[in-house]
Amino acid sequence: MQEIKGKAQVAELIRTQRATRQYSQQAVSEEDIRTILNAGRRAQSSNNTQPWQFIVVRDREILKQLAEGGKYTAHVPHAAFAIALVASSKTGSADFDLGQAAAYLQLAAWDLGIGSCITWMHYPEKAKEALHVPTDLEFHIVLSFGYPAPQEHPQATNRLSSAAGASPGYQKERSQAL
Ligand SMILES: Cc1cc2nc3c(=O)[nH]c(=O)nc-3n(C[C@H](O)[C@H](O)[C@H](O)COP(=O)(O)O)c2cc1C
């Protein structure tokens, strides 16, 4: 098996990545967008179904229309670009698989210094209309991307101290940012 290097870097990306909602004006290159997309398509999926379609949106008017598809979308029109994650199958695990792809897309972007935010489409019918997505497909997730604005402080954030529920009883604890 091929030796994997750079573990420390991945750990650092995971530690420091957080939702970025304020973007600088700097454009993201075509090459970087392709690098990000390629990371997304490498995600694992149930039975290797790869049940996703990624739609890249750069047009500001369409970004604005897309923002109409969710409740908490103020950042979307200001992104350098967005990727809509459309489920191309209705298998029970498609949501989970799309979540995996989203994580890869976001980490690959962060590796390039590009921040991102997951945005939920509470009104999927509006979001589908904006991108001409067929009405019978599942579409709830948009990822917005852009270089963080100077006022954004993309540093490590608080997370639960442990993901493992200890029995008896399940107690949530907040930890300091590590
Ligand atoms: C399934 C899901 C849906 C989300 N929807 C939105 C959204 O609609 N709008 C938004 O601004 N952030 C959204 N987020 C981003 C979360 O608010 C963010 O990941 C969380 O607050 C942690 O932020 P941090 O990484 O900066 O600590 C969503 C995240 C997930 C995982």
UniProtKB/TrEMBL annotation:
Naturally occurring in which organism (per UniProt): Ktedonobacter racemifer DSM 44963
Xref: InterPro entries: Nitroreductase, Nitroreductase-like
Database matches in CDD domains: Nitro_FMN_reductase
Family assignment from sequence similarity: Belongs to the nitroreductase family.
PANTHER family referenced in this protein's UniProt entry, alphabetically: NAD(P)H NITROREDUCTASE YDGI-RELATED (PTHR43673), NADH DEHYDROGENASE_NAD(P)H NITROREDUCTASE XCC3605-RELATED (PTHR43673:SF10)
Keyword Oxidoreductase annotated: yes
The keyword Cytoplasm appears for this protein: no
Molecular function, one GO term: oxidoreductase activity
Keywords: Oxidoreductase
Entry protein name: Nitroreductase
Region (Disordered): 153-178
The Nitroreductase domain, residue ranges: 14-68, 87-147
Signal peptide: none
Stored Pfam families: Nitroreductase
